[in-house]
TrEMBL record:
Localization (cell): Endoplasmic reticulum membrane
GO CC, alphabetical: endoplasmic reticulum membrane; peroxisomal membrane
Lineage, opening ranks: Eukaryota, Fungi, Dikarya, Basidiomycota, Agaricomycotina
Entries under CDD domains matching the protein: HMG-CoA_reductase_classI
A single MF term (Gene Ontology): hydroxymethylglutaryl-CoA reductase (NADPH) activity
Name of protein: 3-hydroxy-3-methylglutaryl coenzyme A reductase
PROSITE patterns: HMG_COA_REDUCTASE_1, HMG_COA_REDUCTASE_2, HMG_COA_REDUCTASE_3, HMG_COA_REDUCTASE_4
Similarity comment text for this entry: Belongs to the HMG-CoA reductase family.
Known catalytic reactions: (R)-mevalonate + 2 NADP(+) + CoA = (3S)-3-hydroxy-3-methylglutaryl-CoA + 2 NADPH + 2 H(+)
InterPro entries noted in UniProt: HMG_CoA_Rdtase (IPR002202), HMG_CoA_Rdtase_cat_sf (IPR023074), HMG_CoA_Rdtase_CS (IPR023076), HMG_CoA_Rdtase_eu_arc (IPR004554), HMG_CoA_Rdtase_N (IPR023282), HMG_CoA_Rdtase_NAD(P)-bd_sf (IPR009023), HMG_CoA_Rdtase_sub-bd_dom_sf (IPR009029)
A GO BP entry: coenzyme A metabolic process
Superkingdom in the source lineage: Eukaryota
Membrane topology: Multi-pass membrane protein
Entry keyword annotation includes Zinc: no
Amino acid sequence: MSSLLQSQAFSAQALALKLKQTRLVNPADSLPTPPSCSSSGTTSPPVQTYEESYFLRSYEECLAIYEDASRSKAEALGMLSDEEVILLVDRGKVAPYALEKLFGMDELERAVRIRRAVVCQYPRGSNTKTLEGSNIPYEDYDYAQVLGACCENVIGYVPVPLGIAGPLKIDGNMYPIPMATAEGTLVASTSRGCKALNAGGGVSTVLTNDAMTRGPAIDFPSAVMAGRAKVWVDSEEGHTALRQAFESTSRFAKLKSLKTAIAGRTLYVRFATSTGDAMGMNMISKGTEKALDAMKEFFPAMVVLALSGNYCTDKKPAAINWIEGRGKSIVAEAVVPGKVVTTVLKTTVEALCNLNIKKNLIGSAMAGSIGGFNAHASNILTAIFLATGQDPAQNVESSMCMTLMEPVNDGEDLLMTVTMPCIEVGTVGGGTVLGPQQGVLEMLGIKGAHSKQPGSNAQTLARIIASAVMAGELSLLSALAAGHLIRAHMAHNRSQVNTPAASVPVTPGPRTF
């Protein structure tokens, strides 16, 4: 054993016992009996035996098996125990990020298990812990759906509680509201809002726009040339040339508009396109790249600085998204009877309208908010995003929302609307390929692409989200108006029973006197 391995206390026996204790390896399954002969016909050296028949061949023997050209890498790794594969990883012969590719599709869980063991060896700071005895699960998961699509260097998965609010009547249909969250009272509160909205006949929604955007940054030798390019893009000739190139990349990508802006000698072009039932970032990026190639034929001196020049704008708050929209733009509306406001929500129409103006409108304006004219739209939207396999980082712009309330019918009833111009969702691609998330979409009746109307399923999901946000807004504002919020959170979100204990053993630190 090399001096490096000795310095890491990484002896064969120590590693075998360590992995045995942490149950990362099942001796019956992961330690196959070594072949009696190699492919060249030579007899394998005697096997070392440790406690309970644990064995570990030398690094040189493992490397010879792994690099034997007569076998595929998957076959070679199948002849090695987990500990022996870890030896190769430790010596740099097997890259930890490539384990799934090397093992093949039939051994993806083993690749994850070995990576967990490798992580246990990483140098750590004073406060970090290994995965020994970890509560992070890794077994019985379909890693084939993750590979090459959702995550790299996988060591397991993190379950999030999934609750159901509602059901809520949306455009005449009843939908359960799936919410993956760890915030107590959120599902219960949203359910209360659903009950109040249903009492008034449910929610009606309007789709005002459907277009994903990408805004590249393009440099020119001079501001004059950038200006000429802007005029060309804005012209019918330029628009036609870019549209034809763009739409040649996908039968679903339809270019709807181009918006241009100049800063110095840099031109920004905001491509807006429909993307079917996909959220569409990959689709529009591919189309934009093709369109820019076509543009370069007219302006060979141009240089594409970035396919995304932050003029899109993706995963950042931006006024352009709030004004122009991005993804699905939805307006939801409902009338809540005054009697329901009093009996279910425990407040009054007058109190709700006053609070909404002072908090959601004036308060947000005082804070200089962009699209933040709401109580907690992000709470509901993000919970549904997690449950349905959306990109949670896009909650930044997707949760932009304006909540409005006004008295109607001589002040007896409450008219409520939510306006959400940037709901970025899809029912195909991304996290929607994962089994549990597909199950949630299937429960809603919108799994995958719509067979007859491309884009309809993703639009329905956006309508569900906006309506659920309305339910959450109504309930929270009512709790605030009635003074119930703190009492509810103390009862359901601050339980001493659910408070986790400190790590054991406690990380050593300086004594306090």
